[in-house]
Amino acid sequence: MRPFIAAANWKMNKTPQEAESFLREFLQLLKPAVHQIVIIFPPALACETVSRLLKATPVQWGGQNCHFETKGAFTGENSPQTLKAMGAASALVGHSERRTLFAESDQLLAKKLKALQDLDLTPMLCIGETLSEREAGHTFRVLEEQLNSDLSAVNWQKPLHIAYEPVWAIGTGKVAMPEQVVEAHAFIRSHLGRLCGRTAEMIPILYGGSVKTDNASELARLENVDGFLVGGASLEAKSFAPIAASRI
Ligand code: PGA
Asked: Which of 95, 161, 185, 191 is catalytic?
């Protein structure tokens, strides 16, 4: 059985103090459940605070980004080895903001994914089509190309999470229709099957893009939806806690 994963992508929001007050409130509100994983992706400067507060709790945390090398002359970058040493469980790879605003290529993402798995950190690979790609009828082709390239060096024996995030639904308030989510997740599951056989059944596929308290329960019941990657609605404990509990 695949776990249900609720992941909070805080992006470039929250000081360490704000992260602390969020977590104090969130840990009170969270209803722990079996087969449920909650992951916080704080900005790098709040990772130390988050790591300290989440010690001895069931909540995990991860990096929003990292370099593919463990150390070296890479001014401004964060090492996956340091994330690991600080207690991270995972890291996001290929969020659409990294792909578009920071020009991250599929080739680079494949290296990051390998670096994380080599350190036993779970990569959460984000994939998704833009509005123009969807309107041109290229959604599946885009998903297939991203999966093929980004997972070209993956170790299928190690944990991997996939987040389907249609770019047009991120931060826009335009959530994908249930049929669109079901269709995309089914496509991703079957393409993973072509890449790794039966292991595909074990890989959680999360949906991301304007998930809110009031649409989470409906989305959580859709076939092949194994959790959410949440941006805006993860910034308040009061809105993220019910999303985390939407499958209970
Ligand atoms: P959103 O962001 O929930 O604010 O749409 C999701 C994401 O970017 O991961």
From this structure: 95
